[in-house]
Structure formats: structure tokens, C-alpha cells
Amino acid sequence: MRLKRTIALLTVFVLAVSCTLALSSCNQKKTYNVGICQLVTHDALDAATQGFQDALKKELGEENVTFDLQNAAGDSNTCATIVNSFVSKNYDLIMANATPALQAAANATTTIPVLGTSITEYGVALSIKDFSGTVGTNVSGTSDLAPLSDQAQMLLDVFPNAKNVGLLYCSAEANSEYQVAVVENYLKEKDVVVTRYSFADSNDVAQVTEKAAAACDVIYIPTDNTAASCADAINNVCLPKKVPVVAGEEGIAAKCGAITLSISYYNIGEKTGQMAAKILKGESKIEEMAIEYDANPVKKYNKEICEQLGVTVPSDYTAIGE
């Protein structure tokens, strides 16, 4: 009888301890490890990364998420090295900032969730024909695509006398090729002479820009990462020659552009962070998540450059930095 009572008491004790441990485990918040691969340092990508981190810390709690932020310094091969290290460490999620980073991450894993940001067109970036807006795999994210036809028309509205327009971009960036093609077709339909001026990398930006500035009335630059990182060099060529630049995003316009119709990179980074939180908390499945966009691009102008060029800007434009 005493033995039975002892066994019963031990059983109750073990159950009590087990329940206490279980409750303690349930009350502990999970810590998430998130790898961030950013292609290169420039204002737009930096803003997207900051927006992503801010949103994810807000959603999960700053103490519950650890970021491993790596910068590829503009090298696609380095992107692959970075994301492969994230995969080997079995991180909970990878954020890929810019197209080469996304391509590397998509090639590196089919199981870890990958969210892209600052990607212009996912169908182009991932070679998906007839892209419907949802990748359907472990990849989703946000796009930095602004209305390209509106940008082309903006160029014509502000520079109505432009007869020769140069399209300046990096040939190694697939999304730049996509944007240039859309703008080129629009301008040609308006009987504007359009010429492409592509550079392979940052080493020949100045030389190609010199050629474009010598032949064109206006230069258009898409949301191009190489151009963004070399915007000062482009300005050093175009401004002395009095050739205005229409930029695809605010970061480029702030350094070398006259006008832009730009989305907010901080906002799309923030949207990406919110998507990440839903995935990590089990509220959404990444394969069902459609690509998200900034629905409110803004017309902006570079006050200093416009004054030096004598450009009259319409009243519905906002000065960059104001």
C-alpha cells in the first residue's frame, strides 16, 4: 500500500514538473535568424534594408530577431557566396536586396523562405514566362517598379524640345534591360530618337556617359544599381555639359538627376519586413504570397541641378529632401 502511494506521488510530481517545463517552453519566444544579402551600398538599397529591419523588429520584437547583414560590393559571385553561407547556417529566412542577390538566393535553396526587395520584375529576374504575380515557390517579395510609361511621358512633359534621348544603363542588370525596353518603345511611338548607351560595369560608366552626353538632349537612367553607385561620376559628366538626367528613382536623382517619378525604397523594405513576419509566425505561406508594390510613386526634382540647368519644374513636383 505504501509502495503504491509512493509511486502515485512520484507520478504526480513528474507530471507537475513536465507541465511546468512545457509551460515555460511555451512562454519563451523564438529567436529568429535572418540573413540579408545586399548587392551594393547606395541610398535606395540602404533604405530598403533599413525598412525591412525596422518592420521585422517591430513585428517580432527587437530581442527576438538577429540579422546577419552582408554586402556583396556589387559582385554577383559574392552574392552567391553570401547566401550559401546563410543556407549552411540554416537561417530561418533570407532577404535578398536587388536582383543578383535574389537570383543567388533562389539558386541556393528551395526550402528556406527567400524574400526579395528592390526587384523590378520577378518574371525577368527568375526567368518565369508569363509571370502572373506569384512565384509559387519559396520566393516572394516586393518590387521597386515605378510606372515606366509615366516616367517616359514625364520626360516629354518637362523637356518638350528633346529630340534625342539617351538610355544609360548597365547591360549586366536584366531588370535595367527590361525598363529601358519599355521606355524606348514609348518614346519611339512619340517620334523621339532613342539610343541605348550601356556599360558593362562601373569601370566604363564615365566613358559611356561622355558619349551619351555628347549626342543627346536628355538622358534617362532606370533603377539601375551600378548607375546608382556611380551617380556622382555621371553628374560630373552631365552637369557641365548641361544635359539633364531623368532618373528612375530618387537616390539617383538626388545625385545626378533633374527629375524622377520614384517609389519609396524604405516603404518597400518595410512591406518586405511585414511579409517576413507573417511567414516566420506561420500566418502566411510564402508560396501563396503575391509580389507587393509601392502604389504611390511621387514626382520629385533636384532643386540644385534644376536651377543650374535652368529647368522649369511643374508645380506638382516635390523637391528632394523637402
Furnish the topology, listing elements before pairings.
Elements: H1 2-27, E1 32-38, H2 43-60, E2 65-71, H3 76-88, E3 93-97, H4 99-108, E4 114-119, H5 122-125, E5 139-143, H6 148-158, E6 164-170, H7 174-189, E7 193-199, H8 205-215, E8 218-221, H9 225-229, H10 231-238, E9 245-247, H11 250-256, E10 259-262, H12 265-280, E11 292-293, E12 298-301, H13 303-309, E13 318-319
Parallel strand pairs: 1-2, 1-3, 3-4, 4-5, 5-11, 6-7, 6-8, 8-9, 9-10, 12-13
Antiparallel strand pairs: 10-12
Characterize the structure shown.
The chain is of the alpha/beta class and 322 residues long. The chain folds into 2 domains: 32-145 and 264-290, Rossmann fold, CATH 3.40.50.2300; 148-262 and 298-319, 3-Layer(aba) Sandwich (Rossmann fold), CATH 3.40.50.2300. The chain has helices spanning 2-27, 43-60, 76-88, 99-108, 122-125, 148-158, 174-189, 205-215, 225-229, 231-238, 250-256, 265-280, 303-309; strands spanning 32-38, 65-71, 93-97, 114-119, 139-143, 164-170, 193-199, 218-221, 245-247, 259-262, 292-293, 298-301, 318-319. The protein is elongated.
Brief overview, please?
The chain has helices spanning 2-27, 43-60, 76-88, 99-108, 122-125, 148-158, 174-189, 205-215, 225-229, 231-238, 250-256, 265-280, 303-309, and strands at 32-38, 65-71, 93-97, 114-119, 139-143, 164-170, 193-199, 218-221, 245-247, 259-262, 292-293, 298-301, 318-319. By secondary structure, it is α/β, with parallel strands linked by helices.
